[in-house]
Design a protein that fits this description.
about 100 residues, Four Helix Bundle (Hemerythrin (Met), subunit A), globular
Length: about 100
């Protein structure tokens, strides 16, 4: 659900950019960034090993890209960030389906 929220906020921020609503765009980007920070803070990198570190790095990268959208928010960059989040969401969904069928 958090990935869905971040994706939704990014899409809303992009829409706000299109009709020049700077404050709404900033708020939606902040919310997407807050989700990445929450996901990152939930990780136990010390005990989680390479997987936790990989997720930490992914959330850092997405957070950095979201910050970059404040400066240069082209449709292509929004699409890249959304696609990266969708890919990660889909990977987690596949893992959940695998666990359910086991």
């Amino acid at each position: 659900m958090l990935y869905e929220g971040a994706i939704r906020y990014l899409q809303q921020a992009q829409e706000a950019s299109g009709y020049h609503e700077a404050m709404e765009r900033i708020e939606k980007l902040r919310r997407a960034g807050d989700i990445m920070a929450a996901l990152q803070s939930a990780l136990d990198v010390e005990h989680g090993g390479a997987l936790a570190q990989g997720l930490f790095d992914f959330y850092t990268m997405i957070g950095t890209r979201i910050l970059g959208l404040h400066r240069q928010g082209t449709p292509a960059i929004y699409a890249e960030v959304v696609n990266e989040l969708r890919s990660m969401r889909d990977m987690w969904d596949a893992i959940d389906r695998e666990k359910e069928s086991a």
